[in-house]
Design a protein that fits this description.
By secondary structure, the chain is of the alpha/beta class. It has two domains: 2-43 and 103-309, TIM Barrel; 47-100, Alpha-Beta Plaits. It has eleven helices and 13 strands. The strands form three sheets. It has a nine-stranded mixed sheet with strand order 7-1-2-8-9-10-11-12-13. Strands 3-6 form a two-stranded antiparallel ribbon. Strand 11 (221-228), helix 9 (236-248) and strand 12 form a beta-alpha-beta unit. The chain is globular.
């Protein structure tokens, strides 16, 4: 069995409990305007170009079968509408300035890679996390991979947008020890404005997890995650509305995590030739993040622990 994976991070501490290895799966049904993994949205890999590595040899221009590469004053231009992602330019680039953003993995490869750090998982109560993109789009693959990891004594976490057909999502989440579940925006119209889709499936899948937890058909942990994005999700109204969702399921939720806006992905957008409306947006001020954390803590009334994660800006 195979799946497209566009990145791996070893030694992460923010994708579930303990020290973990995170695999990022290609493809996402949402198009969040603030996405910090833009290379993972499309179902197919991108061609990435890193200007700092380029030696200007023009080999890529010469070998491209579609003849859609060319240099300008701004650097390498790629007609991405015509690009077939054949990868010949990346294969022939002597400086590795051009790269394919994802590659095919087998379950065997993934398990073997994860096992490299099993002693760290054991020592720090960690494991493996499947993220994306949206890992649930690769349901058969990740279910089999989770089963194989369990057989090796490794716990597995699913980091998900929750936007998936409930019929597919149920067997997926039941295969994992942790579900890190995004609740980005409570209002469905605003959810559609900022992510490209309403939040109906998200709500339905959260309800289904809660039902399975209450019936003891699912014994894993559920963490809710809310990205705190300037001028999108960072309003008192949104935090208070999500708090109502949290309170309704407080008996099955282990924690609520407010994840600070990440602007460290600017170079990703540049390497993919993509515009990003948050390119000039600063990190959230520390005091603002603290205010929202206090709002969330007060709103849930101690029913669920609330934490904040990520980088914030020092107030001046």
């Amino acid at each position: 069995m195979e799946a497209l994976i566009f990145d791996t991070h070893r030694g992460t501490s923010h994708d579930g409990e303990g020290l973990r290895t995170t695999f990022f799966f290609q493809g996402c049904p949402l198009h969040c305007k603030w996405c910090h993994n833009p290379e993972g949205i499309a179902p197919r890999p991108y061609i990435k170009w890193e200007a700092r590595k380029c030696i200007g040899c023009h080999t890529c221009v010469k070998v491209c079968p579609e003849k859609n590469l060319g240099f300008t004053e701004k650097g390498l231009g790629i007609d991405r509408n015509r690009c077939t992602r054949c990868g010949i330019c990346a294969q022939r680039c002597p400086a590795k300035a051009l790269q394919i953003s994802a590659r095919v993995w087998t379950v065997d490869e993934l398990v073997k890679y994860a096992l490299k750090d099993k002693h760290f998982y054991d020592a720090f109560k960690g494991g493996v996390t499947f993220s994306g993109g949206e890992a649930a789009l690769h349901a058969p693959f990740i279910i089999e991979a989770a089963e194989r990891l369990h057989a090796e004594g490794i716990n597995a976490a699913l980091d998900t947008s929750g936007y998936c057909s409930p019929g597919i999502f149920e067997p997926v989440f039941l295969s994992f020890d942790f579900v890190l579940f995004d609740v980005k925006i409570a209002d469905s119209d605003l959810h559609k404005k900022f992510t490209g889709a309403g939040n109906g499936p998200v709500s339905e899948n959260l309800d289904r997890i809660a039902e399975k937890k209450r019936n003891r058909e699912y014994t894993g942990e559920v963490w809710i995650r809310t990205p705190i994005i300037p001028h999108a999700t960072d309003t008192e109204e949104n935090i208070l509305s999500i708090a109502e969702i949290i309170k309704a399921h407080h008996d099955v939720i282990s924690r609520w995590e407010l994840c600070a806006f990440n602007n460290m992905c600017k170079d990703k957008y540049r390497s993919l030739g993509l515009e990003w409306e948050y390119m000039e947006t600063d990190l959230l001020p520390h005091t603002r993040m603290r205010q929202l954390l206090q709002t969330a803590e007060t709103a849930v009334g101690g029913r669920v622990p609330v934490v904040s994660t990520g980088l914030t800006a020092t107030d001046r």
